[in-house]
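Follow-up to my post from last week.
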Amino acid sequence: DAGVTQSPTHLIKTRGQQVTLRCSPISGHKSVSWYQQVLGQGPQFIFQYYEKEERGRGNFPDRFSARQFPNYSSELNVNALLLGDSALYLCASTSWEIGTYNEQFFGPGTRLTVL
Amino acid sequence: DQQVKQNSPSLSVQEGRISILNCDYTNSMFDYFLWYKKYPAEGPTFLISISSIKDKNEDGRFTVFLNKSAKHLSLHIVPSQPGDSAVYFCAASPFGNEKLTFGTGTRLTIIP
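User reply:
Got it. Predicted complex:
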């Protein structure tokens, strides 16, 4: 079975531009979360989506937005890019079963560089 | 406010010896704790977890210990192998809410 896939692998943008990152969850997983990992730090939670509904949002500005599609894939959009948005963006999927802890499985990430 | 802390940025251990990675947390709402391992150019890989109703969980060479009163957990790897060289992240969440809060990571190097 394929794991979580993300595209593109690498991306270079300039300040002020907009970027869209894509994620496909593991087959059968209905929940997708996005994390930002800045160099030297641990991943930071941005969003969680389940069945196309936003279920959680981290402490990120409104320039960050996301959505989930009927096939459970997801996009993360970042507008008006700043140098500080340079990071590895990770997508994680989970099965969302009731009554049990649902471990998250991470994709390889998209490395965004803002110049 | 760093709710999950890994105070050792790096750790070097001889092959075959025990590796002990530590993690502290401050949020009392956390009741599920996980360790992830990360290689360069890959996403974090789940290693082992523990819920707050337990104080120990073992999986092969990996054991996680939880001390709730001290808000401290540790990961023991024994015996350590060269393939264990990676960055290890401690993460925590409230049960039923899979929003993970991560520590800053510890780079483990196993010396052959």
